[in-house]
Amino acid sequence: MGRPGPKxxxxxxxxxxxxxxxFRIPENFxxxxx
Length: 34
Fold this sequence. Notes:
The protein has one helix and no strands. Helices cover 85% and strands 0% of the residues.
């Protein structure tokens, strides 16, 4: 637990990717419906 840097970076990267894909899907559906 001395160096939490790499773990936090990995978690942030995976989190941002998951959020991005999660928000991109609804946007695509909205664009298709319109």
